[in-house]
């Protein structure tokens, strides 16, 4: 499934930023970056679309603008085109599909396409963009684009850390990016497959002011 293009303005590094996110950042409003891997790789359709809508609604209910991030046809997109809470998929699609940004149609494309979208970490961005591909951004890639456009807060569910065999696989990329980033990261907990002891050692071995 090839996501349709939107009328978002182009920001740093060719990133398409939705008008709503752009306006909120310009006035110093609260904007929260959200990853898209959980939509494409975390759960099946239609639960993934329902969850994405609910998460964005919660962000809006608390006075902030949600900025779901994904790469569509080689173009990184930041932000949703809907400036209100939608109570159903039909309402969401009707009201969010005509404005700029990651439209309702494109968000549904993420959910329906699922694993057809490449799971895209920061190290994969260049390849996905250069090849004109579709990428569902992980923690590291989402934080990268959020930082580039000036979004200071990132929220996700379970975060990847150091796996139980991390000394062989060199896992811990997401954790390293979170430690080094200037964003405030809010996470629900560790993802499955992580070794908590090794995660703590990984954090302790790197200077950080975050908790």
Automatic annotation (TrEMBL):
Keywords: Glycosidase, Hydrolase, Lyase, Manganese, Metal-binding. One of its GO terms (cellular component) is cytoplasm. GO terms for molecular function: hydrolase activity, acting on glycosyl bonds; metal ion binding; pseudouridylate synthase activity. It comes from the Eukaryota. SUPFAM superfamilies: Indigoidine synthase A-like. PANTHER family: CARBOHYDRATE KINASE PFKB DOMAIN-CONTAINING PROTEIN, ZGC:136858. This is Uncharacterized protein.
């Amino acid at each position: 499934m090839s996501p349709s293009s939107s009328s978002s303005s182009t920001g740093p590094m060719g990133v398409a930023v939705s008008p709503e996110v752009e306006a909120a950042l310009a006035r110093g409003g609260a904007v929260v970056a959200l990853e898209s891997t959980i939509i494409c790789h975390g759960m099946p359709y239609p639960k993934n679309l329902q969850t994405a809508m609910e998460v964005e609604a919660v962000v809006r209910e608390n006075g902030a603008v949600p900025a779901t991030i994904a790469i569509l046809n080689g173009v990184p997109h930041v932000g949703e085109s809907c400036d209100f809470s939608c109570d159903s998929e039909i309402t969401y699609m009707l009201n969010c599909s005509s404005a700029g940004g990651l439209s309702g149609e494109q968000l549904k494309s993420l959910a329906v396409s699922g694993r057809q979208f490449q799971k895209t970490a920061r190290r994969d961005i260049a390849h996905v963009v250069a090849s004109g591909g579709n990428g569902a951004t992980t923690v590291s890639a989402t934080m990268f684009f959020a930082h580039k456009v000036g979004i200071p807060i990132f929220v996700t569910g379970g975060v990847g850390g150091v796996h139980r065999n991390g000394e062989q696989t060199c896992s811990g990329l997401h954790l390293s990016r979170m430690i080094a980033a200037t964003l405030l990261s809010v996470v629900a907990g560790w993802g499955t497959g992580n070794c908590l002891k090794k995660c703590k050692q990984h954090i302790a071995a790197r200077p950080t002011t975050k908790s």
